[in-house]
Amino acid sequence: MYKIASTDKMKKIMGDYFLSLDSGEKKIAWCTSVGPAELLRSFGFEVYFPENHGALLGATRTAMDFIPEAVKCGYSGHVCSYTTADIGSYLKGDSPLKSHYKMKGHPKPDLIAYNTNQCREVQDWLQFFAKEFDCPIVGIVPPRHMDEVTQDEVDLVIKQFKNMIPVCEQVSGQKFDEENFRETVRLSKEATLLWQKVLKTSTAMNAPLSFFDGTIHMGPIVVLRGTQLAKDYYTGLLAELEDNVKNNIGFLPQAKTRIFWEGMPIWGKLRMLSDLFTANGAAVVASTYCSSWVFDKFDENDPWNSTARAYTEIFINRSEKAKMQMLTDWFNEYRIDGIIYHDSKTCFNNSNAKFGMPQRLREKTGVPALVIEGDLCDLRFFSEAQSVTKIETFLEQLEESKLALNG
Ligand code: SF4
């Protein structure tokens, strides 16, 4: 049975992180997952990420208990189920943060910051909490869906980043310190580059990290970037995975096909899907989702420009043309045989199968595609029986055409 030994360390780090949020020692800033975490940390805030809580609600399959509470308050059951599950959990006063991490519940924010580089939903979501906690809220609203991100667009985002400073100073009681900011960006850059290397270990034919394991091991790069802890964690994980590659130890020896996962994870079905692919000899070796926390443009010598650019250039914030190019590069790098698109019912923004891109990308690359319908948290939108049949048929066809091609 393949096991990543670093998993225990990761669980401990995440447990300690949640406890520190509850300790009351530091002021707390809430931040969107690809928001300006480095700037917030440079003011000494402990940073909490509501999307991480959304994923926890999905993975523990408690989301469906909470979504109806948000619906009662006027939120549609068809909008982002991170949002509705998180708001519902707050309204109901219950969360796995209590049962799993012994927290009192949602940590009270001193400041809330969002970046709509991923979607506008985060603005509505976090505004609910700003009102609820009577707390200041700041937002970055960058240009969206670009082929190329020009310097003019980056300058606009820098201006918005800098507009956050007076609010951060007032709430934290600390003056902005450019050196602190540079140091946080340096730590964040080093951790994110290690995370990138971790993901790239699975370019090896005997891949040591599956997409499903990646969704677990990405915890520290989401919630602890900008800290030494995250850097140390990925240094250890990378060493372990590189060792596995050297010793030809992978999560699925002799995989028949190599698959790319596009879109959000189906959090409540990770284990089932992982087992399904394994049983069919298919290794899911790469994803857009796990790659979303690779910010390889970070540069402590140019902290404003590099962070504004990195957070604006992310996959989800790009045009179809740019996304197709990024996917094509990943297909080549990871030697992908087929791509599975998760068309998520409540996350329009991170679903790329709604306007014909799978067909166009197949024409461009020749890589076969399958679209499955589901959701990140709300399993009422996921038909397991139907999806299993679709995936098994797709994998069988892939395998056959690969065999035919290789004679
Ligand atoms: S990107 Fe999707 S899942 Fe994430 S917050 Fe926005 S709508 Fe929700």
Describe the structure.
With 407 residues, the chain is α/β, with parallel strands linked by helices. It contains 19 helices and eight strands. The chain has helices spanning 7-22, 37-42, 50-59, 63-72, 81-92, 96-99, 121-132, 151-163, 165-172, 178-200, 211-217, 219-223, 228-246, 270-279, 288-291, 303-312, 320-334, 357-365, 384-405, and strands at residues 28-31, 46-48, 111-115, 137-140, 257-262, 282-287, 338-344, 369-374. The protein has a four-stranded parallel beta sheet, with helices on both faces. The longest helix is centred in the middle third of the chain and has 23 residues, at 178-200. It is globular, with a radius of gyration of 21 Å. Iron/sulfur cluster binds at residues 51, 80, 82-83, 118-119, 121-122, 264, 347, 349-350, 376.
Strand-helix topology:
Elements: H1 7-22, E1 28-31, H2 37-42, E2 46-48, H3 50-59, H4 63-72, H5 81-92, H6 96-99, E3 111-115, H7 121-132, E4 137-140, H8 151-163, H9 165-172, H10 178-200, H11 211-217, H12 219-223, H13 228-246, E5 257-262, H14 270-279, E6 282-287, H15 288-291, H16 303-312, H17 320-334, E7 338-344, H18 357-365, E8 369-374, H19 384-405
Parallel strand pairs: 1-2, 1-3, 3-4, 5-6, 5-7, 7-8
Helix pairs in contact: 3-5, 4-5, 8-16, 10-13, 17-18
The chain binds iron/sulfur cluster.
Iron/sulfur cluster is lined by residues 51, 80, 82-83, 118-119, 121-122, 264, 347, 349-350, 376.
